[in-house]
């Protein structure tokens, strides 16, 4: 018997995880678009015709997995619905439990789950309890699994994600003016409201920053709801719309250039299971300011300034300090560049392979 990796393809961070592991693991792989297909079901009601397609996909893909010899490793928890119906051991990587918490907390992190979402998400998270082994990227996610899903600690293996190799690059700029950079979605959990308020306060209190821009790179969000509408409402109410620049998907080379030429990178999230962008920024010699919640301190260590995510004045003061104190900036850049080297896909793959070996020995 052997382990095979289910590899999903797409531009999302969850897909990136499976693709990078696949590149570093010499094991059988099952390449599929199944995650993209189930993503299309997000936000639908139980009365929506898509439910029938979801059930058909559930039955057909679960049957296919049962017929493939070996133990599957599902690279994200949203594939748990397929794992739930398997009659053999399986491994699942849980990046976070945000959608489970959205059921409990009425959608405060991403969005309120629809009736169909609840059906699939409940199945996903029930499957986690059945897994032979659960891989998580941070101790914070491990604690969440133990606390909320009652998964036994001994079943959970913490393996930090690797980080793609980013390099300083002087290429295209998002604007001619100096700018603060944020990369990610506009989910409520990303807490852009605090960042925008701090940015407004910084410009109001310090005339020297009158030309400073706020550059936001990445999608507004997924199919859950229109997050851009709320973002625009916030920046319009603050009167900073002319200073905020939205950029959607960019190439890795462009992103390297954006990181490299930014005055600083901010990561104001309320909840993260891991978080790649600040580590990417560090590789490009960009100083980072981040929240002090969930997995963020664990992942970023002392290579950044950590702040309460809701303290607007603290964010404004930290932004100003990094923008004006060259010695602090140099210290953050040096610490960041060194810290980011601790994360590699080779290491993540090697530790994942050990989990496979443990499962095979106990099967």
UniProtKB/TrEMBL annotation:
Domain Glycosyl transferase family: residue ranges: 174-337
Domain Glycosyltransferase subfamily 4-like N-terminal: from-to ranges: 76-164
CDD domains per UniProt: GT4_MtfB-like
SUPFAM superfamilies: UDP-Glycosyltransferase/glycogen phosphorylase
Keyword Protein transport among UniProt keywords: no
Molecular function (Gene Ontology), one example: glycosyltransferase activity
UniProt keyword list: Transferase
Keyword Transferase annotated: yes
Name of protein: Glycosyltransferase family 1 protein
Protein source organism: Thermoproteota archaeon
